[in-house]
Amino acid sequence: MVIIGIDLAGVPEKETGFAVLRKGLKTETRVLHTDKEIIKETLKHKPRIITIDAPLGMPRGRCCFDKNCSCRSAGAMRKAERALVKMGIRVFPCGFAGMQKLTLRGIKLRKYFEKKKHRVIETYPGSAQDILGMPRKGKGLESLRKALIKYGFRGDVKTAKTDHELDAITSALVGKYYLEKNYLALGDPEEQQIIVPRDKNQRRLFENKKH
Ligand SMILES: [Zn+2]
Fold this sequence. Notes:
Blueprint: E1 3-7, E2 16-22, E3 26-32, H1 35-44, E4 49-53, H2 79-86, H3 100-115, E5 120-123, H4 125-131, H5 141-151, E6 154-155, H6 163-179, E7 183-186, E8 194-197, H7 202-207
Parallel strand pairs: 1-4, 3-6, 4-5, 5-8
Antiparallel strand pairs: 1-2, 2-3, 7-8
Helix pairs in contact: 4-6, 5-6
The structure holds zinc ion (ZN).
């Protein structure tokens, strides 16, 4: 069983983290750039599921991010993002100026993979890390690496040089929770839901909103 994790960058010039998660929590990671590379690497592994850390949908009522389009009145935020905020988890809404390129790239890749009959889910590694009690990459690459190794990951997790690869591993982990049916799907399917793991630590998160 192979799960793919993609920590997608907004543009090909920036690093996209790519992770292959296999049985026994074995990881292989790489840094990729172009859509072509991402597609080729992903399909090569014949994954059970593809997980992408990027918004994969638009707010309901929006057809584009054009400033002059009347759809602008539908806002920048999806229900899933509101739900995360309510849980005390920081998130950038998909329609924010700095997120629009990423959102459009995510949607394009999702549609491509779905056309090839693959199941694609949207993840948000920061939320998974919060829920599972792992440090976010903002606290330093090594502390997140340590937490992932402690969780049981093996292979490239030990040598990966970028935080994007570690977030890609976290994204793939969300895919594992999804396949095991230990997940919450936040938001509106029409806007694309964000999948988060369900875990015993989650209660703590709900109680402690300052987190
Ligand atoms: Zn529009």
